[in-house]
Write a structure and sequence with these properties.
five-stranded mixed sheet; 11 helices; 68% helix
Amino acid sequence: MAQALSEFSVPAQAAKDAVKRARQRRPTYVAQSASYVLDAAILWLYHLAGTTDGWIGVGYGAAGVGWTGLMLAASELHFTDRFRDHYLTVPQSFGSIAIQLTAIYLAPEVGFYFVSILFIVLGFGALRMSAKQTGAVWTFAAVGLTFLFVCTDRPIAMPMGTPAERQLALLCFVTALGRCAFTGLYGSSLREMLYKRGNQLKEAHARIEELAQVDELTGVLNRRYVMRALNEEMLRAQRSGSPCSVAIVDLDFFKRINDRHGHPVGDEVLRSFAICVAANIRAVDKLGRYGGEEFLLVLPGAPQDEAVQVVDRIRRNVAEMNWDALGEGVAVTMSAGVAQVRRDEAPDEILSRADLALYRAKNAGRNRVCS
């Protein structure tokens, strides 16, 4: 049943992600359509000023809005989701540049305006394209312009003969500058989004690293990482000649607590015990769950006698705690075995000596520390 629900949730989540991506793409297509409508309006003003034919603005607007509408339809139908760049930036750029080149050829009398729009198309597309893709799009635009300027005799111009044409030229440049500014703001928002996502990924990675190190139940180091800490501290102590002690701590009669009060109470005992120990050790000390109700405590810089005193103080604190909040009649004590690192000793050897000391504490009646 659980497997069936899991298999059902995967396509459902994929569908939600596809809808979200389509919603994110929508403003881009709307902005592009608005840009073509603005250009068509300016071309219509040129027609009213007697510079161009009326069909130029209509045809240009229809081509631009039609091409953008085709891209929008592909987005809404989730056709673009199958591609790595689900914005299809390269095809969009090729289509937009082709429209500008065609417009320059058909309406060379205002060709300067379409040339300026080429810069906007390439600049906007470069925000989402790789260097190789940008080079390909630039090459297409450069070849097209070369053909128009060298291989044809089209009189590409910027009409300035009348006051109306001068004002319209100013309008063309002002609107082009505005779109350049918008492109810059869009690029800035993309960088900010990438920066935030980068920080989120770093935080998630740090959290994963933390979870990988921590025992899920008690919040102290898990066996793998406390053993790594033991290896590191032993090597450091053996190189420098400074003391380092290790303690194996075991809760007395823990199975009896589980049998009488249930495993949930036993889990709370382990958590509370770990908190108690962590509160009574130094920041440099390492505490980890060694297995079951056993804990491993690494005390760098502490000789054996000092380590015994530290662990015995923890033992007294644990025994004197009021455990009744966890269950009526709950009482917790601990036994521990302590050993000091010797020169050229392996981790298994010191753990074996600490374990033997723990067994002596158990055999001597529990609730005590032996070394």
